[in-house]
Specification:
Elements lengths: L2 E5 L4 H12 L3 E6 L7 H7 L1 H4 L4 E5 L5 H6 L5 E5 L6 H6 L1 H22 L3 E7 L23 H20 L2 E7 L2 E2 L8 H10 L4 E4 L5 E2 L2 E2 H14 L6 E7 L5 E2 H12 L5 E4 L14 H7 L7 H17 L2
Length: about 325
């Protein structure tokens, strides 16, 4: 049994991870500040499963509240830090807010850990740290020094702060670079969710760029497997930070993503064209050699199957509304 403090527990990834950890017998202390980036009722719904477990407790807490975090920690706790302001395009409109939540917030988590003797941390980072000039497939030892959005910059900064402080405080840190996670409970603003909603309603969708922009989409179950493996890896890891890619092992063009959603819905998409959006990288592609070797990470959900599962969840969810 492991005691886990999970920040961002009411979010997409956090709620799925809570359920997996509880199912294997861990104790989960979840925190979330219900940032209004999207509707609170969606996040409350995400927590229904975890809240049904006796081993789950929840605190509505902001990660900037270091004293509150420290009160929830014991030396044997593992911190899984997923709380963050998310989204590339919104970060261009509010860079100061992203710095405060994603950098200062991460420092607050570190401070709480050091104050209470916690040494094991799993940090939710992003493939966006690789920018537009990393040679694909992206390896964890790439320089990653040219982010093209404030969101990407704050995620890379969070990694660097953890890397700098880990040797001084004996922190054992796994930094997980997530590659475009999708699946049930995905944020409503993200492309797969937004396109599914609009196509199913017979509304047009906007395809930004020429359709060749491509992402290494990763199904939520595969991501959760990787996070759990990284959590367990920290138990015997030396002090320091190791970065790991968690991807889907296939790069999917935007035009194909739209086609797969249309096929799963049985509805032809009405496509309108738009210019390429600032802050969006042209390509993401994960080299999974390191995460496979060290964490045993192997994604198992092909993209068409993942889309079918998402569409089934979407239909069931909307049928209840």
């Amino acid at each position: 049994m492991t005691r886990v403090l999970l920040t961002g527990a009411a979010g997409f990834i956090g709620s799925h991870l809570s359920e997996r950890l509880l199912a294997r017998g861990d104790v989960v202390v979840g925190i979330d500040n219900f940032d209004p980036f999207y509707a609170r009722p969606i996040k409350e719904s995400n927590l229904r499963g975890p809240r049904a477990h006796a081993a789950f407790s929840f605190s509505e807490t902001d990660i900037l509240e270091t004293d509150s975090l420290a009160r929830l920690l014991t030396p044997d706790t593992v911190i899984v830090h997923l709380a963050a302001k998310a989204g590339v395009r919104p970060s261009l409109q509010d860079p100061a807010g992203y710095v405060r939540a994603n950098i200062t917030g991460t420092q607050s988590v570190i401070d709480a850990a050091c104050r209470t003797g916690v040494t094991r941390i799993v940090f939710g980072s992003s493939s966006s740290v690789y920018g537009d000039d990393t040679t694909p497939p992206f390896r964890e030892d790439a320089a990653a020094v040219h982010p093209i959005s404030p969101y990407a910059a704050t995620k890379r900064a969070g990694e660097l702060v953890l890397e700098a402080l880990a040797p001084h405080h004996g922190l054992r840190v796994a930094s997980l670079r997530f590659f475009t996670v999708y699946g049930p409970r995905q944020r409503p603003d993200l492309a797969i969710h937004s396109f599914t909603r609009r196509i199913s309603a017979g509304e047009p969708i906007t395809m930004f760029g020429d359709g060749s922009e491509a992402r290494d989409y990763t199904y939520i179950d595969d991501i959760v497997n990787g996070v759990v493996s990284a959590l367990d890896w920290t138990q015997g890891a030396p002090a320091g930070l190791e970065a790991f890619n968690l991807g889907g092992n296939e790069t999917i063009a935007l035009s194909r993503m739209i086609a797969e959603i249309s096929a799963a819905l049985g509805t032809e998409a009405r496509i309108e064209r738009g210019g390429r959006q600032p802050g969006d990288v042209r390509l993401t592609a994960a080299d999974l050699t390191k995460s496979g070797r060290i964490l045993g990470y192997r994604p198992t959900t092909p993209f068409p199957e993942g889309i079918r599962r998402f569409v089934a969840w979407f239909r069931e969810t909307h049928a209840r509304q």
